[in-house]
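Trying the structure run again after the queue cleared.
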Amino acid sequence: MRILAAGAAGFVGSNCARRWAKAGREVVVYDLFTYAGRMENLLDIRDRIVVIKGDVADRDAVFRAVAEHRPDVLVNFAAESHVDRSINEPERFIRTNVHGPYAFAEAAKAFKIPLIHISTDEVYGDLHGEEPASEDSPLRPSSPYSASKAAADLIILSYVRTYGIDAKIVRPSNMYGPYQHPEKLIPRTAVRLLLGKPAVIYGDGGDVRDYLYVEDFCEALDLIIERGEERVYNVPGGNPRTVKEVVEAVARLVGRGEVKRGRPRPGGDRLYAMRGERIKALGWRPRTPWEEGLRRTVQWYVENKWWWEPLLDEYVLRDEPW
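Done. C-alpha cells:
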C-alpha cells in the first residue's frame, strides 16, 4: 500500500509514518515543514520514505503530488493544532485547517482515492455535565482551532454526500508521546521543569482531558484504513485526567521543580469526553496504560534535549502564552 500523508512530519503523522515504514508500506510525506513539522521527526526512517515539501492548502501542489505518486490512500494529519496559538493567530488556523482539507477532498474526488482526515474530540465542545459524545453528537466548537476543525469535518462530509468521495473522519482524544512539540501540556511541563522554570496549572486545574498514547492511535488508524466502513470514528483513550493531575504526575517523574497557578485560558472547555463503540467494533482497545505511557514520554524528553531545545519559544517559555 502506498500512503500519501500530509503533515506527516508533525507529532502524530511522524509516529504513524514510522509505523508504516517499518511495516514495509510505501510512505510519501507531504509537509510544509513549519515550526511543528520537522525532518528531525523522521530521521530514523528518512531512507525509507519519499518527502515532498508542500502546502496542504495549495490545491495545485496537492494535485501535482497525488498525480506523480498515485497513492492508494490519502491521509491528512496537517493542521495548526495549538489552542493558545489559535487565540492569538486565528487566520493561520482557518487557512491550514479549512483550505487544506478542501484541497484534499478535491484530490480525492478528482483521482478517486480514499481519504482519511484526522480531526479532534474538541469539535464536540465542552461536555461538562453531559454524556460523552458519540460520532453523531452535534459539533459545538469553542476555540478558533476547534471551529476550524469542525468546519473541515463538515466540508468533507459534504463531499461524501454531494460527490460520492470515499472519506473517513477520525476524531482522537488528546494524544501524547515522543516528538510532540513542547507547546503542548505534557512536554511543556516536562521541558519547563528541566529548564528550571515552574510548571503552570491554568485556573483551578480541574479541566479534564482524555489521554491517548500516540502509538495506540496509529494502531487504531490502521484498522480504520484497512477495515473501516463508517464515515466518522471516535478514538478515545480511556484515560480522563485533570490538568492538575497531569502536571503533578509529570513533575513527579521529572523529580524536581515548582508548580504554580496561572489565569484560566480564554474560552477554555471544562471537559472533553467521547464514546468509541465504532472503533471498538473493529477490535481495537488502547494498549498503553496511562502510567506507562507517561513514564515513556517524560523519559524521552529527558533524553532528547537536542530535539526540543531549538523549539523553545514564547508558548513554552512564557507562563501565560496568550
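The chain has two domains: 2-175+211-235, 180-209+239-268+288-317. Worth checking whether this holds up in the mutant runs.
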